[in-house]
Design brief:
single chain; about 475 residues; alpha/beta; 5-stranded mixed sheet; 18 strands; about 20% strand; elongated
Length: about 475
């Protein structure tokens, strides 16, 4: 009996010894290596190394692989691996120019001066100044964007008034805010591209903070970050991060290119994200029981002068027509996105309002009035993106006699109609074709387009 008691006592002592030993081993192995937090990014497990290892500095010849590598490729990624910091400078297909800078090293941002210091001792580190707006080719627009100065150096943690466990993403809401095309094309989609792989584990710093923009897209922004958004104008202090991105990655007009970084992300992912964040009901037109059609009516330029006749024809074909023309309704994205999402067909003349095609359910039909002199813009901004979104795209090409320009500039032999790109200087052409044109639709000819639209939503490909 005494031996059994002694054996039990020994087992108890071993048990409590192991209980004390295991936490000590855990701290030595993990905390000693500076591991604070891990996060799933894509298919692999990445590590945010924000402990003592990085803050004490790496060897200069050590590769700086990190959790934001997915935002760079090629030579930019090689620079990142070498120094822990790199900027992407690239021209897109139409010569639009974008730039964003990425740091895998600890980053200190002073929101009072908008200066950023990367914790780096690399002799090959190149500092830069960036105005964090997705498209860089418009120099006049960029003057409204507050610059961020980025440099390398050592900073003490004692200087950090706010320590964040997630990386920073710095961008501006300046630019063409107030125009839905530019808001979504140059801020919302690039922000999605830049942050989505971080699974909301990111801190947004919004320069040139626009309250109306922030309120309009609050549900979308809330789905991209789990942290409080920082407005430098009202939060003038020093913030420290495990890394960060300054500027946003831009792919193309209303586009998310799966072949560009971050590889594999697509416009389909963006549309699914919008449905979730805005609580949109319909994923596919098969869920819509009636052939609902949304006609976007314009009240200034590019008006449909015989709109009532067009609506009557649509109704005769069996469409339930919803006419929207109030700017207040269109600008309320939470309401208008649900209206668009409930429709199987979306019709309108070229203009920013067509950006709302992003809310249409899969399989819907997008019909654009292709006006004189606007053919390239119609395809590049709305037509081609619609196809990539999984929509059926139909264009109704306006003939010269349907345009209000016919009475002003004469018949078909006029350069205004047969060679618009050569008819005027660029700034004059914009005023003529974009701001000085209305249309009177040939209802009989347009009816054929709408018959095709009806056949598409009914799944009849024989017409």
């Amino acid at each position: 009996m005494g031996k059994e008691q002694s054996k039990r006592l020994d087992l108890r002592v071993c048990f409590w010894f192991l209980c004390l030993l295991f936490p000590w081993l855990f701290l030595q192995v993990f905390w000693g290596n500076g591991v604070r937090q891990s996060a799933d990014i894509g298919d692999s497990k990445r590590i945010f190394k924000v402990g003592r290892t990085i803050l004490s500095g790496r060897r200069e010849d050590e590769k700086q692989s990190g959790f934001l590598d997915f935002l760079l490729k090629g030579n930019d990624l090689e620079r990142m691996m070498a120094t822990g910091f790199a900027c992407n400078n690239g021209y897109n297909y139409d010569d639009s120019y974008s730039k964003h800078c990425v740091s895998n090293l600890p980053l200190q941002i002073d929101t009072n001066t908008m200066t950023a210091i990367v914790q780096s001792r690399s002799p090959s580190f190149e500092g830069t100044v960036i105005r964090p707006y997705a498209r860089q080719e418009d120099e006049i627009l960029l003057q409204r964007v507050t610059p961020v100065k980025i440099s390398a150096g050592n900073f003490s943690q004692s200087l950090c008034q706010h320590n964040h466990k997630f990386p920073a993403v710095v961008f501006s809401t300046s630019g063409f805010v107030g125009n839905v095309f530019h808001e979504i094309n140059e801020i919302i989609i690039p922000l999605f591209i830049t942050t989505r792989r971080l699974n909301s584990e990111v801190v947004l710093i919004v320069e040139d903070y626009n309250p109306s923009f922030m309120k309009k897209y609050d549900a979308v922004l809330a789905a991209l970050t789990s942290s409080e958004i920082i407005n430098p104008a009202s939060n003038k202090s020093v913030h420290c991060f495990p890394g960060g991105v300054i500027g946003l990655k831009f792919h193309n007009h209303l586009s998310v290119d799966p072949g560009d970084v971050p590889i594999g992300l697509s416009i389909v992912d963006f549309r699914n994200f919008l449905r979730q964040s805005l609580n949109l009901r319909f994923n596919h037109i098969s869920q819509i029981k009636r052939p609902r059609l949304l006609l976007l009516s314009r009240r200034s330029t590019r008006r449909i002068l015989n709109e009532d006749a067009v609506i009557t024809m649509m109704q005769d074909l069996g469409f339930e027509v919803i006419l929207i023309h109030r700017a207040k309704t269109i600008s309320n994205i939470k309401i208008f996105s649900k209206i668009v999402n409930s429709c199987a067909v979306f019709v309108g003349a070229h203009g920013a309002g067509l950006t709302n095609e992003v809310f249409l359910p899969d399989g819907a039909v997008m019909v654009q009035f292709d006006l004189i002199g606007l053919n390239w813009a119609a395809a590049a901004y709305y037509g081609n993106p619609a196809k990539a979104m999984g929509l059926n795209y139909l264009k109704y090409e306006i003939r010269p006699e349907e345009s209000s320009l016919w009475k002003v500039f004469g018949g078909r032999n006029s350069t205004v109609f047969n060679n618009p790109s050569e008819a005027f200087p660029v700034h004059v052409g914009r005023e003529v074709y974009l701001n000085g044109q209305n249309v009177r639709i040939d209802v009989g000819r347009f009816r054929k387009t709408m018959v095709e639209a009806m056949s598409l939503i009914n799944g009849d490909s024989s017409l």
